[in-house]
Write a structure and sequence with these properties.
Blueprint (H helix, E strand, L loop, with lengths): L2 H21 L1 H11 L1 H4 L7 H8 L9 E5 L7 H7 L5 E6 L2 H10 L5 E5 L5 H7 L5 E6 L10 H12 E11 L3 H7 L4 E7 L6 E7 L6
Parallel strand pairs: 1-2, 1-4, 2-3, 4-5
Antiparallel strand pairs: 5-7, 6-7
Helix pairs in contact: 1-2
InterPro entries: SAM-dependent_MTases_sf
Organism: Novosphingobium barchaimii LL02
Keywords: Methyltransferase, Transferase
Length: about 210
């Protein structure tokens, strides 16, 4: 292949890279969605209204470990880090290496850890990072489109890993996730955030102090 042919072959890749760089995190998010829409769930990151409302029930002074499933390009990450105590940790888990690489390269906070892996393995991941339990777990994973058996496994593992008094925070565009949560969490708060594209369901599943 001649140098001219090589240059022609490389041109689409250069154009693609320039477009992605110009779009910033939106470009990374769009690419991640196009590569694996089943695991991302939405083509548009959550609105600030959704972020603020989802995090409003967290008792930040007592939070030592905050876990997020499917962080994407970090829409929730900085808002969480802004509120997290100085001795706390934010642990995010994603199966998409594109998102994990992006987060590792852009978030420079010693309290932040990004792990390439499955949310179903949250217990092992939490222990590997020096904790036995998580205070809160946040998820925007599309439960209704996950492969068979994955959503129930995630819900069960999440219940086990959350400490008493903690909560599972879930936002979704379909109501299916609540049924998985209800198998484990006796008390669930419900809400809908209309200022989001699309509007989303929100749930807070609480692991009460008197639970076994």
């Amino acid at each position: 292949m001649t140098s001219t042919e090589l240059a022609r072959e490389a041109l689409p890749q250069r154009i693609k890279r320039k477009i992605k760089q110009g779009m910033g995190p939106w470009g990374v998010f769009l690419e991640g969605f196009l590569r694996n829409p089943v695991m991302v769930g939405s083509i548009i990151p959550s609105s600030r209204f959704t972020i603020n409302r989802m995090l409003s029930k967290v008792d930040w002074p007592s939070c030592k470990l905050f876990v997020e499933y499917g962080p994407g390009v970090g829409t929730f990450c900085q808002p969480v880090l802004d509120k997290l105590p100085r001795d706390g940790m934010m642990l995010v888990i994603d199966t998409n290496p594109l998102f994990i690489d992006y987060l590792r390269s852009t978030i420079r906070d010693s309290r932040f850890v990004a792990v390439l892996g499955s949310a179903a393995d949250v217990e092992e991941i939490v222990r590997a990072h020096g904790h036995e339990k998580a205070d809160y777990v946040l998820s925007g994973l599309p439960f209704s489109t996950l492969p068979d058996g994955v959503a129930p496994a995630i819900a069960a593992a999440t219940y086990r890993v959350i400490r008493k008094g903690g909560a599972f925070l879930v936002y979704q565009f379909r109501p299916k996730a609540r049924s998985y949560m209800a198998k484990h969490f006796k008390r669930i708060d419900d809400a809908i955030e209309p200022i989001n594209v699309p509007p989303c369901f929100m749930w807070w599943g609480w692991k009460d102090e008197d639970e076994g």
